[in-house]
Structure formats: C-alpha cells, structure tokens
UniProtKB/TrEMBL annotation:
InterPro entries recorded: Glyco_trans_1 (IPR001296), Glyco_trans_4-like_N (IPR028098)
Family annotation (PANTHER family): GLYCOSYLTRANSFERASE
Keywords linked to the UniProt accession: Transferase
Name the record gives this protein: Glycosyl transferase group 1
Glycosyl transferase family domain sequence ranges: 180-347
Keyword Transferase assigned: yes
One GO MF term: glycosyltransferase activity
Domain Glycosyltransferase subfamily 4-like N-terminal: from-to ranges: 15-169
Lineage of the organism: Bacteria, Pseudomonadati, Thermodesulfobacteriota, Desulfobacteria, Desulfobacterales
A Pfam cross-reference name: Glyco_transf_4
Length: 368
C-alpha cells in the first residue's frame, strides 16, 4: 500500500506556493496516496485536483487563533491512517505540529516557501518554535538559503537540520518565431519593441511602483521599450491609476489575470522582479526556462537564482535608478541580453527543473 500523505496548505487559490503544492501532488499521487487539506477555502485549483483523483478538504479557519484546527487535523490523520504530513508555510506547520500533540503517529515535513516583509522578531514565538514545534517536526526544507537563514533568525529552527530545496518547474516548450510574433501581437507589441515584463500577483511585496518608476526613466532613452504586467491582486486598480497618472498608457500593458500566464514568458525580452522579499519565484524560473534574462532585486532568494551579469542583472532592492540602468542596457545591448538569456536557460536546466525538485522530495519522503 502506498504511504498516505496529507499536504496542508492555506488554500489552493492563485499563488506560487499553492500552484507548486498542487503540481507536486499531481506528480506524486500515483506513488503516494496524497490528499490536500486547506486551512481556509479550497480555491480555484481544488476542482482540477479533485478531478485527478486527489481528495481536497477545507477546514474554513476562523479569525485569530483557531484551536479547532489541531483537533480536526489529528482526527483526520487517525481516521485516514496518514503516514506523514507535508505542511507548506508557517501557519499550516503551526497547526499541523500542534495536531501531533494529540495524535503523534504521522510524521511531519515542514516546507517554507517565503517570508513576510517586513519581518519582526517575536521572541516568544521563536522560543516556542525552537522548543516545541521543532521537536514535533521530522524534516524542514527551505526554498532558498535566504529562507533557511530567516527560519533560524525568526523561528529558531536549527540550520544544520534544514535542507535547501529550490523550487522547480517544467521547461517551457520551444516556441517558433511565427508563434512568438503572434503571441506578442496579442498584447499589441510589434517586432521592433523591446518588451520587459512582470508575471505574478499584484501585491505590495512585489514593489511594482519601483518597476514603473524605473521603466519611465529608461523609456526616455529607449523609445521602443514596452512593459507588460500580467497578473491580478490587491494593487491592480492602484497600478492602473499610476500608469495613467504617469502618462504611460501607450507604453505599458496591464493585462490582468491570464489563464495561460505560465506559458507567456517567451513574449518577453527581459523579465523584471523588484520584490522586497522573495523565496524562489516560479515566474522567474519559467522566464529562465524560456531563455529570458532577468532583472531582479537583491532580495530573498533572487541573487541565488540570477547570477549578476551572467544570467541577468541583480540590482539593489528599491533602487529605481539601478533598475532603469539595467532596463536600458537590456534594451540597447541586445547581443548581451541574448547571451544572458542563453546562460539563464542553461542554469535553469542544471539547477531548477521540476524533475530535480521532485527527485529530492522523493528521497526525503523515503526517510519519513
């Protein structure tokens, strides 16, 4: 009988963590009897997951500290003979860890995908995690060395017992020139346009206002420069208004949510990620897999993924002027950008594929 594994997540809504958990479940459910428990609502990925034969349960967490959840998780584990939990992010880890005080049979793997910004040290929480939750946890993984370090600084977790497992994604299929031209035309871009772009959630942590500021400055010397922003989120209307206020409507396309967003990286000539904090960006990996160089902030795991002046540009976090200079270089030195894109693709294939990540987790699962 295959081991029964319960993934515990916030939800299966839009987001890199949610998508990665869903993709992992789909990839592994023939070797493991996987089910997914959402602390909150199920989200848009729930129905496709269920159609694949993976059960999805939602606990509809109450505001504040919901002490029903450890009881519900413990009962579920006992009734379904769960072998181990895979908790994605800190809150699922907290409740799943507490459930083991009630029913200790299932083992626990905690995976941290990213950190909040700004982070505030809570000494009581750090002590509790170090003395209680860490002892209830068998394996800890972090998606970057930066996240691993922060787990020690802010959560008290032993760095010697934390594995770094970078996110992975499947390589995007090669795109014929005619197909790429048609895809660019879908967003109103011509062959001569140099398209910079962001793909992801429109959230304050992504620092898109700095992207717009840097883009506006670069545009003065690069009239063929365009900016494509793909995604939705709480800042959508604010960004829309800022584009109008900055008189950038003829140069910036705010495309909103796109169902095929993961496949749109080849539209870009350069990917831009100015995050204030980041684990390992799935959109960044997809851009690299498509041979697109990236301009990234020196935040979180970004500088672990992008090699400055080899696979892209790493600029100081929040520095619109530095971002503008990188955009200008990407637009004017196309030969260098192409060479960086080729190196980005090579680095992706060597380090950040989905198969590589899954192989690592299979090894960790076998040890539980």
């Amino acid at each position: 009988m295959n081991k029964r594994v319960a993934y515990v997540v916030h939800s299966l809504n839009l987001g890199g963590t949610e998508r990665l958990a869903a993709d992992m479940a789909l990839a592994l459910h023939k070797e493991y009897d996987i089910r997914i428990i959402c602390l909150d609502e199920p989200g848009i990925w729930a129905d496709p997951i269920r159609r694949a034969g993976i059960p999805v349960l939602s606990l509809y967490r109450q505001p504040g500290l919901d002490l029903r959840l450890p009881v519900m998780l413990a009962r579920y584990a006992a009734r379904n003979l769960i072998h181990f939990f895979h908790a994605h992010q800190c809150t699922p880890w907290f409740y799943t860890g507490l459930s083991r005080l009630l029913y200790p049979r299932p083992k626990l793997l905690f995976e941290e995908h990213g950190r909040l910004y700004p982070e505030v040290l809570n000494k009581k929480r750090r002590a509790f995690n170090r003395m209680v939750l860490q002892r209830l946890t068998h394996t800890v993984t972090a998606v970057s060395h930066d996240v691993k370090n922060r787990l020690f600084l802010y959560e008290g977790l032993d760095p010697d017992k934390t594995h770094v497992v970078y996110n992975g994604t499947r390589p995007l299929p090669a795109m014929a020139p005619d197909e790429r031209r048609a895809l660019r035309a879908r967003f109103g871009f011509t062959q001569k346009d140099v398209v910079a772009g962001f793909i992801g959630r429109l959230d304050p942590i992504k620092n898109l206002c700095v992207v717009l500021d840097g883009f506006q400055t670069a545009l003065a010397g690069c009239p063929d420069l365009k900016l494509l922003i793909i995604g939705d989120g709480p800042l959508f209307n604010e960004i829309k208004e800022k584009i109008i206020h900055m008189s950038l409507s003829d140069h910036v396309v705010l495309a909103g949510y796109q169902k095929d967003a993961a496949a749109l990286a080849p539209v870009l000539d350069v990917f831009v990620l100015a995050s204030l904090s980041e684990g390992t960006s799935m959109a960044l990996l997809e851009a690299m897999s498509a041979g697109v160089p990236a301009i990234v902030s020196n935040a979180g795991g970004n500088p672990e993924i992008v090699v400055n002046n080899q696979t892209g540009w790493v600029v100081p976090t929040g520095d619109g002027s530095a971002l503008s200079r990188a955009l200008t270089e990407a637009a004017l030195d196309k030969r260098k950008s192409q060479a960086m894109g080729n190196q980005a693709n090579k680095r992706f294939l060597e380090n950040f594929t989905f198969d590589r990540m899954i192989h690592t987790y299979k090894t960790l699962y076998q040890q539980l």
